[in-house]
Specification:
Largest sheet: 7 strands, mixed
Strand content: 15-25%
Radius of gyration: 23 Å
Number of helices: 12
Bound molecules: zinc ion
Distance between the termini: 12 Å
Structural class: alpha/beta
Mean pLDDT: 96
Number of strands: 20
Amino acid sequence: MFPRLTCFGGVGEIGGNKFLLEDVGAKVLLDFGAGFSDGSDYFDSSIAPRGVNGAGDLFEFGLLPEIRGLYSEKALQNTGLRYSEPEVDAVVLSHYHWDHTGRIGYVDPKIPVYCGETTSLIHDAYSESSGSPLDEHPIRRFRTGDRFRVGSLEFVPVHVDHSIPGAYGFVIHTSEGTMAYTGDFRFHGPAGSMTRDFVDEARNQGTSVLLTEGTRVGPQDAKHGMSEKQVLEEASKLVTGSRNLVFSTFRGNDVDRINTFYEACQRAGRRLVVSMKIAILLEKLKADKRLRVPRVGKDVDVYVRRKRSGKLDDADYYPWERPFLGGGFNAEMVRKRQGELFLHLEAWNFPELIDIKPAKGGTYIHAATEAYNEEGEREEEVIRNWIDHVGFKYAQLHASGHAPMEEVGGLVKDIAAKKVVPIHTENPEEFKAFDRKHSWRLELPKRGRPMGLAN
Ligand SMILES: [Zn+2]
Ligand SMILES: [Zn+2]
């Protein structure tokens, strides 16, 4: 019977990773994330799950598994599942993306979360600025080189390169052999060699079962996506070639992208201006000596939005925002120095452009994934309308956080496990294409159905 693995998310979908790993005297969740399209058949911007029902409205549609001894009392209030003391020993987190962390807020706060040291710093930043799903939990930190034990399971965390710092894969020694879980990974980022370290470790430790992501596995993959280095080269050309304002939308916790645009600004003699949420993240990440991040106030400046009274008074801002007010750039200052600046502006902050009133002829860089569904297309249309409205040029520049299909195939071949379980992919059956020599077995996971891991 043991060890066994049950996939409650990440099955035939990108994101939503929720895997329960059980062994003699051990019950561990590998990630507990929200799916990108979780519940979109029943909920939308006008129909939302009710807070008063805890996790109940999510249980109704199978969006959360009904596992005993996992959830907090609050999550179970008004649901059919009765609260009981924790039976799950730990949540082991691969990295701080919502599709891996998003449902941890429902988990009993007595259950500890294991995460990388860098992830715990990212959590600190979000905890202060907007709240974090890890807020109530005891946190146990690890780094590459550490090992930790939960019951009969021994975890060997190894760093991987991804679009957020502090991402890990795991080699896990169970009572009956060794498995590996990749988390999310790529080889084409600035620290691609870290993913290589994970592959080497997984092979050397004799992995027999491999649980691997396959975000870009499928017939549609653009084979030669950009690397972060190419984003830097293209961005440098755009920034150097512009005499007007340059602004960009990108994921605020993608520290590689922040470094890329900082470097492009250095080359062009511009100043990078970031949001307060990025500023607090950079402040926290200073504690990680192995990470290179620009210094707030020295290397990058902070954009100050008007709030409440609109008079930029201290009292208008949260305590965590106040340290960034002095020396920050408001809309008027950005207008006055627009040809010298590169501004980070999330789409939901586009109304700031009404105050900034940039001169026509500037450049907008959409440094995020291109739309892949109807909702995304609608969002892109709105973004393009804003860019037309201010008379800017639209550029798309992005390096994916995930390895292209052939590199996933390379990882599968190099680790040489006996059994491969594809997760975090819409096309699990496409993994067949990697197994021309039939040297391993493909096991397609079924949502909520336990599978044995012993050989
Ligand atoms: Zn993911
Ligand atoms: Zn991710």
